[in-house]
Design brief:
304 residues, Glutaredoxin, 4-stranded mixed β-sheet, 15 helices, 51% helix
Length: 304
């Protein structure tokens, strides 16, 4: 279950509850705007048969299926997942739809019939990202954004040390785009009333409350004890003191809030995610980030 989450929402809290009951055919994003990424955001709200949570072609996922998936998780994750049933539903849907795509791809490419599902899936996703490469400009952008990590070493000196990381990062991004776009390749419908109820639980967290505040926000995702993350502690404290009532400055420990970290696709720490006044993500930076640069970015977003 943990691996599933590693691989793989601006309205007030009552927005979904007060939504027009004649909402058949509208998208989830229309009434649940904080759920702003992933294929579920662009799923169609529908009045499905009782007990169904999602339907996509011949694939159906019941509300009981979602509960059963949560029950499989380690005990320390179950409470988090229960508040994020929409994310569990999304991951179940993506997993099943991508496995179906992989099976069709395997048949077309004449792969071994006895190949395991996992091997087939990895080969399929590998075929999606095989053409993704890394340019010298990509490497220089990474170097310039993370100079402090290299102790004054020149670009040419450290380039071999991080080129494979940047390539892997680009391929992971391409893979994620393909997963997110699965809803463009098949119509997904979700149960309207159930979705509205689950959405209210999903946004009951510090990050979404900040996004709903009409102020720009920076969220530092990290972990206690991580050396690079500890560098951000005095920076965040200073920012909070100087920006009270102007911008939100939050820290999220991803070792404690694993599902929240996964939802915002935190794959390396520390990472600073910036949201504008409408709660939309506009920028993110990986690694320690100087206070002055964070202030400049927040100022650009209206946090003066």
């Amino acid at each position: 279950m943990r691996a599933l989450w590693v691989l793989f929402a601006v309205l007030v809290l009552s927005s979904c509850a007060l939504a027009d009951q004649r909402i058949e055919g509208r998208l989830v994003l229309d009434v649940c705007p904080m759920l702003d990424s992933g294929p579920l955001a662009r799923a169609h709200l529908a009045d499905l048969p009782e007990g169904e949570a999602l339907r996509a072609g011949e694939i159906t996922i019941s509300q009981a299926d979602v509960g059963a998936e949560i029950a499989k998780a380690p005990s320390d994750l179950r409470q988090q997942l229960t508040r994020n049933r929409l994310l569990v539903l999304e991951q179940l849907a993506v997993q099943r739809l991508i496995m179906r795509e992989a099976a069709k791809w395997a048949e077309t490419t004449k792969r071994e019939a006895n190949e395991t599902q996992d091997a087939r899936l990895q080969a399929y996703l590998g075929s999606i990202t095989a053409s993704v490469g890394v340019t010298d400009a990509d490497l220089r952008r990474f170097y310039n954004a993370n100079r402090r990590l290299f102790g004054g070493a020149s670009f040419e000196q450290v380039k071999p040390q991080f080129s494979s990381y940047v390539l892997r990062q680009k391929r992971d991004e391409a893979k994620q785009r393909h997963l997110d776009s699965v809803g463009e390749r098949v119509r997904i419908e979700v149960a309207r009333i159930w979705t509205e109820a689950q959405y209210r639980q999903l946004i009951d967290n510090p990050v979404d409350r900040a996004r709903l505040s009409s102020m720009p926000s920076v969220i530092d995702f990290g972990a206690r004890g991580c050396a690079a993350c500890e560098m951000m502690v005095p920076v965040l404290a200073s920012l909070r003191n100087g920006l009270t009532g102007k911008a939100n400055v939050l820290f999220v420990d991803v070792t404690k809030e694993q599902v929240l970290g996964s939802r915002f696709r935190v794959s390396a720490i520390p990472v600073q995610v910036f949201f504008d006044r409408q709660g939309r993500e506009v920028y993110r930076h990986i690694g320690p980030f100087p206070e002055g640069q964070i202030r400049t970015k927040l100022s650009e977003l209206g946090g003066r």
